[in-house]
Amino acid sequence: MKEILEYLAGLKADGYLLVNKKRRDYQYRIYDKSKEFLQLVAGLVERIGYEAHIYARGGGRWYELVVYGKDLVLSIGGLWRRLLEDPTNAFARGLADAEASVIKGNPNRIKFTNRDAAVAQAFARALAKNVVPYRTYVERRASGVDYVVVVTGVDNITVFAERIGFLHPAKRKRLFDFWGLRALPFSIIFLEPRWGCLGAGHDRKVTPGITGSSRVRVPIDPAVWYPDVVSSHPGGAAAAKGGVARPLKGNVRWVQTVARQVGLYLSGALAA
């Protein structure tokens, strides 16, 4: 139940909570183009004892899921504020389903976009906690500023899929169609497997102590937003013209941490 609530809190990134104390009206609302996805979310809502309603909007071009309930709305509101500062994998998965895209191209990437810097920062923080390299930049549009967090390269996307991943069927399908990353069955996706594979079910050998049962704790720096970037290229305008994308300091720490873990593992193996 806890993970479901955290996941629903993450989905609020593309929705809102309606609270009217005078009318005693408390609503949780999210939106998506996929009715199938919202039906899956409705199933999760039912598992925690509430009823979800799905309505067609815009002539059936998109759909809205609505849940009524004071306790649920207040719980999600509290979780939202707390998890922005200390995101869990379930919360990050909700954020990804709400605001991330799976893009095949040059480079291959998972692109997360939100108008609120705090929301994008939370997603970046979750990636750092899971030792997933990422970059950040800003896209300026006539309608305002978008804060972007991007994971590039198939290897890094694989790590993202294993540790956070998607529940959204269309996004899980793209992971498989593009790179052969298989998603776990929806009914068991919230279960914590022994080796921490939380979003993909493809066969990969995992070395215990490096990406397995021992969790690597790394210092998490605040994401750095580059306000001069106006290109949609993950590395910004300079990278789009052939320049090199600017990585965050956290990527260096990630390499150092993995190297240290490999050294410890090899030392133990030799000693044995």
From TrEMBL:
The segment(s) forming the Homing endonuclease LAGLIDADG domain are 4-72, 88-165
Instruction: Enumerate the GO terms in the molecular function aspect.
Output: endonuclease activity
Q: Which keywords describe this protein according to UniProt?
A: Endonuclease, Hydrolase, Nuclease
Say if the entry is tagged with keyword Hydrolase: yes
Keyword field contains Glycosyltransferase: no
Spell out the protein name for this chain. rRNA intron-encoded endonuclease
